[in-house]
Amino acid sequence: MFKAESLESGYVQGKKSCVLHGPMDFEILPGKLVLLAGKNGAGKSTLMQILGGLVNPLSGCVSVNNTDLHKTSVETRATLISQVFTHPPDMPLTTAKEVVFSSRLRFLSGWNGNMQAHENALLEALEMCGMEAFAERQFNTLSDGEKQKVMIARSLAQETPVILMDEPLAFLDYPGRREMLDLMKKWCNEMGKTIIFSSHDLELALKSADAMLLLKENQKYSCEWDAESLKSTDPAGLFSA
């Protein structure tokens, strides 16, 4: 279970804490696809990094299966949560397969690791994202959309119960966005993943999400709607007063 308790996000300026969101409390069960929505500048990326344990909150905690992400080791956190950022990293002289393999390093144990099992896992992850044909391509020669798919495959190969995705649809065309949302929904339903993703394509994203975290007027509202209610929501009215 992914859980936030009395969570406040923001930043410190001098001796003063500036709260952007919260305090917020929510629980997300396994197998749920959750949309994080908000206007430009609402702090979605900041909140996403806090939820991933990369940035400390002003107060409160975030946990996966009762493990506080901000108080555990990097190694333990890597077994619980993976994160896909808005902009893929610059990784010259590295193939797509090697990028995905980098998420498997925590499974290696000296010379005792089953390399064939790792090879199978990363190729399966690439196939799940439709990128198996690009396995030997240099990562930096791929388009932005292709790079993003490789990074999503990397998060799958990491084998964590929770995946955070910051604008995973940003570099995809319309058919690609629909396909990716269908895949994300499938991973939640069939693999029990918890996926939290941000997107500006609300009209499309609302049709796939099980629930939504809405950042509005510097506050957070947890909208635990069922899929049918989300589908009938008018995106144009989400941020109105």
Molecular structure report:
The chain is of the alpha/beta class and 241 residues long. The protein has a single domain, classed as P-loop containing nucleotide triphosphate hydrolases (Rossmann fold, 3-Layer(aba) Sandwich), CATH 3.40.50.300. Helix content is 32%, strand content 27%. The chain is built from eight helices and ten strands. The strands form two sheets. Strands 6-7-8-3-9-10 form a six-stranded mixed sheet, with helices on both faces. A four-stranded antiparallel sheet has the order 2-1-4-5, covered by helices on one side. Helix 4 packs across helix 5. It is globular and about 50 Å long. 39% of the residues are buried.
For the residues shown, what is the average pLDDT? 87
User: Would you give the CATH topology?
Assistant: Rossmann fold
Percentage of residues in strands:
25-35%
Order of secondary-structure elements: EEEHEEHEHHHEHEHEEH
Count up the helices.
Answer: 8
How many strands, which pairing sense, and closed or not: the largest β-sheet? Answer: 6 strands, mixed
Shape: globular
Widest sheet: strand order?
A: 6-7-8-3-9-10
> Structurally, how many domains make up the residues?
1
Structural class comes to alpha/beta
Let me know the CATH homologous superfamily: P-loop containing nucleotide triphosphate hydrolases
The CATH class: Alpha Beta
The unreliable regions are none
